[in-house]
């Protein structure tokens, strides 16, 4: 089962929370969210796990979307 994760970097406040839940997420030098080892990608199909779902749920600005 796959899930599409979407990043909305303009909403990200660089709080650093999402990477504590999942290594799917990483940050540009300015702390804004990106996918691990991907500088430009804004959508990715992943196999969801609890950490990814938690990151989507807990992002304070809803900069991470999953569907
Ligand atoms: S949890 Fe949300 S606001 Fe915080 S770094 Fe991740 S995407 Fe940005």
TrEMBL record:
**Which Pfam family, any one, appears in the UniProt record?**
Fer4_15
The record, for InterPro entries, names: ET_Ferredoxin (IPR052395)
Q: Name the needed cofactors.
A: [4Fe-4S] cluster
PANTHER family per UniProt? FERREDOXIN
Protein known as: Ferredoxin
Q: Which organism is it from?
A: Streptococcus himalayensis
Phylogenetic lineage = Bacteria, Bacillati, Bacillota, Bacilli, Lactobacillales
């Amino acid at each position: 089962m796959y899930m599409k994760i979407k990043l909305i970097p303009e909403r990200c406040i660089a709080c650093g929370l999402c990477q504590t839940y999942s290594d799917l997420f990483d940050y540009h030098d300015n702390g804004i969210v990106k996918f691990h080892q991907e500088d430009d990608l804004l959508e990715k199909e992943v196999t969801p796990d609890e950490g990814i779902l938690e990151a989507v749920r807990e992002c304070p600005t809803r900069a991470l979307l999953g569907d």
